[in-house]
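Please fill in the sequence for the structure shown.

STRUCTURE ENCODING:
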């Protein structure tokens, strides 16, 4: 089968189409003929050997897929050949065929496309875990979302509104700001590009504070990091929860005296580890996502679809922080 492979550490330009053996499902597994694979920021990091783990090469990036069941392993009764499914793989999704654990896949609703199915689980799964399990979101909370126009950012805007929060989205361009408004944000901030001087950092903190109101933010959803983190933390409210999602702008250093002064929490969000450690709780979250999806309160925004041979271009666009919504690679028609 064909696969888009990383054979050596490097950027998207190092990826190449190659061949891997056709996989065979073992007990409890399902063989999926992949139709679409969504691209996320971990795909940028893993091919450069900068992610939390380093898979043996050659490997295919790509963490969430959709497709059609081709065969099932012993003991699998929930799926059969021909079923349309979606699932989170962790890695290895940019291939023509993929073996997945039956417990890690879900049926695609009849009215949804393969591209939408591939774009659902990682961003919304991460975000519902962040907001509910780590952030304890409550109706009436005010939430600041950094990087609000990306896949996880738009998911945070939509889920924040679905859970009754007032949501302020922060982005780097007016084009991205419009996407965040369209997703339902109550207010939007357009910030400059880091790095920031001390005065610029202070000015950004004041802007965040102004939009947050007198009580500040009960939740800050940080999918950016870098020089944006400290100004955001300075705007948090009393006993607020600062949710650490990712670091495309770099890993920040936070002055811990701010956590004392605000009596706030800095909470790490590692959805993949949570899903592995707490599978039943994770499936409860996923069921809630499907209910919200059916009700029209959330919906993946697929903004660009790439051919399989051009999958590296999708990762390059993600690396350059140019993505709005979800970028998807169409593996097969």
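FILLED IN BY: designer on duty
SEQUENCE:
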């Amino acid at each position: 089968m064909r696969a888009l492979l990383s054979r050596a550490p490097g950027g998207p330009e190092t990826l190449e189409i190659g061949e891997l053996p056709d996989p065979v499902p073992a007990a409890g597994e399902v063989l999926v003929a992949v139709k679409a694979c969504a691209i996320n920021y971990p795909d940028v990091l893993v091919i450069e050997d900068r992610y939390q783990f380093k898979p043996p090469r050659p490997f295919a990036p790509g963490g969430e897929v959709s497709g059609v069941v081709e065969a099932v392993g012993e003991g699998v009764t929930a799926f059969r050949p021909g079923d349309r499914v979606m699932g989170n793989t962790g890695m290895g999704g940019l291939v023509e065929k993929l073996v997945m654990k039956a417990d890690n896949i879900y049926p695609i609703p009849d009215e949804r496309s393969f591209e939408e199915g591939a774009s659902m689980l990682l961003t919304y799964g991460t975000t519902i875990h962040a907001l509910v399990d780590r952030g304890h979101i409550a109706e009436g909370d005010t939430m600041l979302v950094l990087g609000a126009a990306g896949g996880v950012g738009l998911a945070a805007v939509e889920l924040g509104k679905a859970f009754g929060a007032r949501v302020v989205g922060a982005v780097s361009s007016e084009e991205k700001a419009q996407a965040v408004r369209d997703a339902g944000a109550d207010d939007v901030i357009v910030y400059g590009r880091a790095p920031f001087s001390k005065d610029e950092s202070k000015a950004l903190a004041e802007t965040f504070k102004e939009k947050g109101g007198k009580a500040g933010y009960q939740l800050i959803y940080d999918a950016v990091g870098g020089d944006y983190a400290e100004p955001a933390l300075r705007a948090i409210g009393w006993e607020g929860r600062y949710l650490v999602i990712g670091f495309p702008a770099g890993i920040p250093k936070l002055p811990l005296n701010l956590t004392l002064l605000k009596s706030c929490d800095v909470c790490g969000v590692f959805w993949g580890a949570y899903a592995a450690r707490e599978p039943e709780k994770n499936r409860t979250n996923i069921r809630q996502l499907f209910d919200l999806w059916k009700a029209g309160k959330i919906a993946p925004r697929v903004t660009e679809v790439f051919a399989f041979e051009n999958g590296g271009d999708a990762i390059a666009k993600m690396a350059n922080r140019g993505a709005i919504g979800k970028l998807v690679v169409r593996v097969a028609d």
